[in-house]
Structures are given as structure tokens and as C-alpha cells.
Write a structure and sequence with these properties.
Elements (H helix, E strand, L loop, with lengths): L1 E5 L6 H12 L3 E3 H9 L3 H8 L1 H16 L4 E4 L10 H8 L1 E6 L2 H8 L14 H19 L4 E4 L5 H12 L1
Parallel strand pairs: 1-3, 1-4, 2-3, 4-5
The structure holds shikimate-3-phosphate (S3P).
């Protein structure tokens, strides 16, 4: 079985992926971590030193490679579905799940946790909310192409796991 989790930064992809992989006994994959291992640099360093376009190419290559594996729960990066035809590829090879979060929910998470996030690390609080709103608006059409959509935050982690399990059964 192949499952890919997608959604904006701070929507909880990595946490849910970890639990889902345990529950379904599937290999856990995290696209950002795989890129970091391969490059020997953090995503922040790659984007800062070599630029976002370079990062998006690495991300695409790693995505193509992971999607060929036999089974996994894969946490995508927040931007992965929005470049090249990545979302079509993800949908072709896996069950894609969009963790849908509202702007206030994302702001709550990201305002506390932005240092390791290169696209927003430089933003002040007042700018952050505006940035999330615009960025999410630009990205939503890609996220909406996911096969399954579940609320990212309203319910408990157990509810999110159950929603995916219910779809699978
Ligand atoms: C990005 C999200 C990050 C990471 C990179 C770019 C984005 O992943 O891939 O910093 O464009 O939204 P997370 O969503 O896991 O933070």
C-alpha cells in the first residue's frame, strides 16, 4: 500500500505519517528528510545556499524515486504538490491525503515554529498571517487534487487516523 500525505507547512503531515505508518505497519518516508540525507544538508541550507528552484528539482527527483517503492506512508513537503506535475504523479502511484487546515490553525502552529522553515523564517508575526493566506490561496487548487481530504486539526489524531482507515476499508 502507498499513501502520501500532503498539506501546508504546519498541518501535521509528519506526525500523522509516523502514526499511520506504525498503525498500518508500512515503511515511513519523509521527503524532506530523504533529500537531507542524500544531500548531507538541511532543506533550509539547500534553499538558502542553492536556491528554491534547485531544491524543487531535487524534490522532484526524490519524489519519483520514492513513488517507485513497493509500500510506504510518505510525508510530502508543503510545496511538493505545487511544482511540475508532482500531484498527478503522486495520485498515479499512491493514495493522496490532504490535511486541510485553516489559516488561523496554521498561523498558531507556524508563529511558534518558523526558524527551521526557510520560506517563512524571515517574516514578522504581522506579515506571517498575510503570507499564509496568500500562499494557501495559490496552493489550494493543487492540494484539492488529493484523492482524500481530512481536517488537519479540529479532531484528534485518532480521528484523523480513523478517517484514513475508514477510507481504506
Ligand atoms: C516547503 C515546506 C517544507 C519544505 C520546504 C518547502 C513549502 O516542508 O519542503 O521548506 O514550500 O511549503 P514541510 O511542509 O514539511 O515544512
Amino acid at each position: 500500500m502507498k499513501i502520501s500525505l500532503l498539506g501546508y507547512m504546519g498541518s501535521g503531515k509528519s506526525t500523522l505519517a509516523r502514526h499511520l505508518a506504525l498503525q498500518l505497519d508500512l515503511p515511513l518516508k519523509d521527503l524532506d528528510q530523504l533529500i537531507e540525507q542524500e544531500e548531507g544538508e538541511s532543506v533550509s541550507e539547500i534553499i538558502f545556499n542553492r536556491g528554491e528552484i534547485y531544491f524543487r528539482k531535487l524534490e522532484r527527483e526524490m519524489l519519483e524515486a520514492v513513488l517507485q517503492e513497493e509500500s510506504f506512508v510518505l510525508a510530502l513537503g508543503g510545496g511538493t504538490p505545487c511544482y511540475y506535475d508532482n500531484i498527478e504523479l503522486v495520485n498515479k502511484f499512491s493514495l493522496s491525503v490532504y490535511l486541510e487546515a485553516t489559516i488561523p490553525q496554521l498561523y498558531n502552529v507556524l508563529s511558534q515554529d518558523r526558524r527551521e522553515r526557510p520560506l517563512i523564517a524571515h517574516l514578522a508575526d504581522e506579515e506571517l498571517k498575510e503570507f499564509i493566506a496568500k500562499h494557501l490561496f495559490e496552493r489550494r487548487d493543487y492540494y484539492e487534487k488529493a484523492i482524500l481530504k481530512i481536517p488537519a486539526k479540529q479532531n484528534s489524531l485518532e480521528d484523523r487516523l480513523e478517517a484514513i482507515q475508514a477510507y481504506l476499508s
